[in-house]
Amino acid sequence: MLTLSPGSVCDVCAEEYGPHCVPHSIPCGHVLCSSCCHKIVEKTLPRLQPVCPFCRDHFTSEDVRLIRIDFSASGWANTRRRGGLTEALDIADRSTPRREDRFPFVEPGSSRTRAEARRLEDKVAKVAAKKCSVEEVSTLHNELQDWLTHDEKSNDQLNSSLSLSAALLRAILMNHFAHSEATKMAKGVEATLKGKLDDAELTVTKLEADLKQYQALHNQKIQECQALRAELSRYTLKSASSQAATSPTRPSTAAPTGLSERRQSVSSSAASTYNVPAMPSMLSRFAATHSRSASVAGGSRPTTPARMTAPSIRSETPTQASVLSSRIRATSP
Asked: Is the Cβ–Cβ distance between 2 and 70 less than 8 Å?
C-alpha cells in the first residue's frame, strides 16, 4: 500500500491529499483528486470526451481509479484517533508548515517570490473550482507565463507546479476556443439548413397552389365534357325522333305510284290480249273533244263529203269506248 509524504497535493486544485482528499489515477498515469476528476467529467460537453489536463489523453468516469493510501504511515493515524476541536486544531496547525514546506527556498530573500507563487496557485485553484469568464482565465494564464519567463532560476518544484497550472489553464482555454468554434460552425450549419428549409417550404406552398389550380381546371373540364355529352345525347335523340316521324310518309307516296303502274300494266295487258288499242289519256281525249266541237261549229259552212262521214265516226266512238270498258271490267280480277 502506498504512503503519502507531507505536502503531497493535487496538481490541479493544489489541495493537500488526506483522508478528506484521496488521490485518484486516470489511464494516462496522472494523479488527481476525486473532486477534480469529477469536475473535468461534468464540465466536458456531451458530444466530447473528457481529457487529461496535462497530456490530453481521453478518459471516462469509469476509468478513474482510487489509490489506496496507508494514512497510518503518513502521519495521519494520530489525527484520526483524536476527535472534536483537538483534531481540527491539529490539522490547522500542521497545514501551514506543510503548505510552506511545498516550496523550500534556500535564499533568505526569496520570500516575495514565494508569496507571489502562492498567490498564483490560489488563483488557479479558484478558477478550477468555479465557473469563470474567458477573460479571467486568459489573464491568469498570461500572469503564469510571465512569472515562469521572468523567474526561470527559481526552485524547480515551484516551477513545475506553476507550469502544470499554466498547462491546465491553457487546456481550459483551448477547450473553450474549440467549443466556441464548434458552436459557431453549428450555428452556421443551422442557419444554412433553416434557409434551405424555408426555401423548401416556399416551394411546397407554390406546388400546392399550382396543384389546387390544376384540380380546379380539371373539374371544370370534366363539367364541360359532361355538358357536351348531354347535349350530344339530346341531339342524337332529336335526330332519331325526326327520322322516325318522316319515315311513314314515304310508303304512302309510293303506294299510289305502284297502284297506277299496276293499273297501267293491267290495262296494257288487257289491250294486248284483246288486240284493242290502249285507252287514250285524258289529254288526248280532251284534244279529241275539242276538235269535234270545232268541227261542229263549222256546220254552217257548205258540207263536204268529209263532213258527211264525221257523224258516223262520233256515233261509233262511244260504242267502242263502252265495249272496251266492259271488256276491261270483265278481265280485271
From this structure: yes
319, three cell numbers:
260504242
What is the domain range of residue 68? 1-72
The answer to whether the pTM exceeds 0.85 is no
Nearest Cα residue to 124 out of 112, 140, 138: 140
Please, what sign has the CA dihedral across residues 270, 271, 276, 278?
A: positive
CATH of the domain at 13: 3.30.40.10
Task: List 16's β-bridge partners, or say none.
Answer: 9
List Cα–Cα distances, 242 to 77, 239, 254, in angstroms.
130, 5, 20
Task: At 184, list the grid cell.
Answer: 459557431
Q: How far apart are CA 135 and CA 65, in angstroms?
A: 34
pLDDT in tens, 2-29: 667 777 888 888 888 888 888 888 988 8
What letter would DSSP give residue 2? Answer: B
CA 93 to chain CA centroid, nearest Å: 74
Q: Is residue 302 part of a domain?
A: no
Q: Is 25 helix (H, G, I), strand (E, B) or coil?
A: strand
65-66: strand order across its sheet: 31-33, 23-25, 65-66
- Work out the angle between the directed axes of helices 305-331 and 282-297 (0-180°, nearest 10): 150
